[in-house]
Specification:
CATH class of the largest domain: Alpha Beta
Mean pLDDT: 97
CATH architecture of the largest domain: 2-Layer Sandwich
Low-confidence stretches: none
CATH superfamily of the largest domain: K homology (KH) domain
Shape: globular
Distance between the termini: 37 Å
Strand order of the largest sheet: 1-2-3
Number of helices: 3
Length: 139
């Protein structure tokens, strides 16, 4: 896997993935940015959410669950020091669908957290406290 990050100007950068996709990252105006893209630390959370959601949806689809909507709401805390690393992250999966089995949703979230989500497991190994929850809403 390989990516490239190119400086544009100020504190704006263009990230290019090895699969040919691009994303703009920029800083807040008080840090010299123009707020033209996600912050780099937000990108870490987005990647974590994407990784975990990929796992959960793959397992639920294999389990023949009819999911009509899935999102993961992520909240994170950072230490008040430099570097301002994450100290804790919470992922809450919010799913809806036709006759979703709570036991399968619970198991998919657990397996993602404990076994499959490379991003989550990597961050935990670095000392970040990561927690997960889920809720099923009516479609």
């Amino acid at each position: 896997m390989q990516t490239t990050v190119k400086w544009v100007d100020g504190v704006m950068f263009l990230g290019e993935s090895g699969s040919g996709h691009s994303v703009v990252m920029d800083g807040a105006p008080d840090q010299g940015g123009r707020n033209m893209g996600a912050r780099p630390m937000e990108m870490i959370l987005l990647g974590l959410g994407g990784c975990a959601s990929f796992d959960v949806m793959t397992m639920l689809q294999k389990g023949r669950q009819q999911v009509s909507d899935c999102r993961v709401e992520i909240s994170a805390q950072r230490v008040d020091a430099v570097p301002a690393v994450f100290s804790s992250i919470h992922l809450e999966f919010v799913l809806s669908g036709s006759n979703l089995k709570e036991s399968q949703v619970k198991r998919a979230v657990e397996l993602s957290a404990e076994k499959y989500c490379s991003a989550s497991i990597m961050l935990e190994a670095a000392g970040v406290e990561i927690s997960h929850s889920y809720r099923i809403e009516a479609p």
